[in-house]
Structure prediction request, 153 residues.
Amino acid sequence: MRVDARDEAAMRLALAEADAATASDDVPVGAVVLGPDGAVLGRGRNERELHHDPTAHAEVVAMREAAAARGGWRLDGCTLVVTLEPCAMCAGAILQARLDRVVFGAWDEKAGAAGSVLDVLRERRLPHRVEVVAGVLADEAEARLAAFFADRR
Prediction:
């Protein structure tokens, strides 16, 4: 598991996307996809409320943008950085896109699929596995989520 300054810098970009999600009353989750050279290929934030789309999770939005930038669906050599552990739907999309790495901030103890509830990204029976780096700037990601949900209770 490799955590470095580049992962933290990318997580700060994802946290900025998470902050922007709240403008549409979406859960503050943000993501970026980095190319093999470290350049940002895609950015995303939760947009389920904004677009009335159950698949508009930050990871999916960022991967769609990255695939468009690359001119193809394969994101091999790329890294997805997301503020919250991916769910099962997003983990499946990550595998389909052939991403090499996933870096996430906060664990999702209710629906996470990268090691907490499930570990889809490293399931040995599947044809592709992803390197997972967990807990990068987790406190900052968790604070955003806690504040969002506290305002709604």
